[in-house]
Amino acid sequence: MEYVKYIFGLLLIPLLLVAQKPTGLSSAIYNKENYAECGLPMMFELRKSGEGRARPTLSGTELFVNKTHFRIHYTLSGGDATTTAYAESAGVYAESVWTRLTALGWYMAPPDGSNGGDTRYDIYIRALGGYLGVCYDENPYTSPFPDGYSSWVEIINTGITYTRESALVTHEFGHGCQMRYSRSEEPFWWFYENTSVFLEDIVFDNVNTLPGRLTGSTDDPLDNPDYPINRATGVYEYRGALWTHFLDEYYETYPARSVRRIWELCGNHVGNYVLKDIDSTLGLYYDSDFKKALGHYAIWRYFAGTIDDGRHYEEGSTYPDISLLRTHTTYPASGNEGSDDPSGPGGCNYIKFTNFGSNRVTLSFNGLNGYEWSAYVIGRYGSTSYEYKIMLETTQDTGSITIPGWEYSEIILIPIVTQWASSANYLTYTYNVTLSATDKNIAGEELGPNYIGFSARPNPAQNKVLINYFLPINEKGVLRIYNTTGQLIKTRELTSTTNSFIWNRQDNYCNIVKNGIYIIELTSGNQIKKQKVLLLD
User: Taking the complete model, does pTM exceed 0.85, yes or no?
Assistant: First the structure.
């Protein structure tokens, strides 16, 4: 029933706005030059200085729009003047936000006693300098979270469209909900902004400011993938909503639940521990961790803009393309981070390789010692792509992988700084790429007359394992996959050619292939080669 009410409310809004159209509002909803940001950092600075913030006094006679959960404060005169229609629409949007987030299990911003005239949540419409809205924390509210606070919101009185107003109300009231969980994540206030920009799209699916924020910017996760996810300089933290969108779409089918669970843990963990709470949430609910998430987030960012394949970001086609570090077309090839040295957590680069012919491609990576790295490889041909993980030696951060170049039109190397519990700034690395003809074995050695062999990558793997194999000329072989109890999982007949295939744990064997160790066995004549592979989520 609540969902029906929510949909009805959304359908009612356009009718209300047609009847009560305000004057003097800009139509440039996605123009970043016309988009001033949230005043949340100012609120944190006031808190640091001990000044606090009193409730505002409007420039003229104070009027009210009273809704079920909200009181909208506005005036028709003086510098804070707006229109009754604008104030009414703010109330309609606010109630839609309340209904939607409540249905998704979020705690709402708490009552504030009689501040503002009654217990309803207060939104003040007034002239603001240099920003569109702000949420101020007010008094402790420790039920059920020990560091929760009540709050109120201010939004600008003119200069934006109704569509933009709906996103603004969502954004600022979203901060009020976040402060119900915790107001102590101050050194990590970037996550407040990540979350509120994300909630704009969750509440009003047709109103997503993120594509406009990303387009034309030079301080965002696509143009500057080398920046860490917790960057809070300039306006990166708003564009960093790409991170919360990833958490929502990669780990969940239920909207906003993964992000909500992070805030619940923040609320129960007094102090500024949002990075640790992200890691703990991924472990508690998703059998994952921060390091794995940063690696997959780097992969997802590659599939934006013209590279969108419909299997990553829901709205990825509306985003700009990722910024490549460089492209190689001749081999051997080598390089380093150049001037885009990545920082953690999550800073990465994208290096593209093309023109492989019928050769194998060996990619080697060497990250700066003493830091945590991951290195992934994407192979693409048309709309088809496969992911590989380079297994890095734990102390030297080196590793390599060989994949069939003839399968792909392009290969992307993605080195990622996955260190998050301590500083990892401006790190360096090197890489090199070589080609080997198909008349050599997987190790690059000259073939013997009776050589058989194979490699299985990545290892550990998730859903797919690439198996490269070689058999002597005119010989046949059989490749079998067993679990540790000896149960046969898969059999494949092989011919005498250097080739490869993908073992997908989901193809008709999802009831058998669980997490754990599996043995891959290649036999030909009287020769047998075996290798263990670890499957993880």
Answer: no
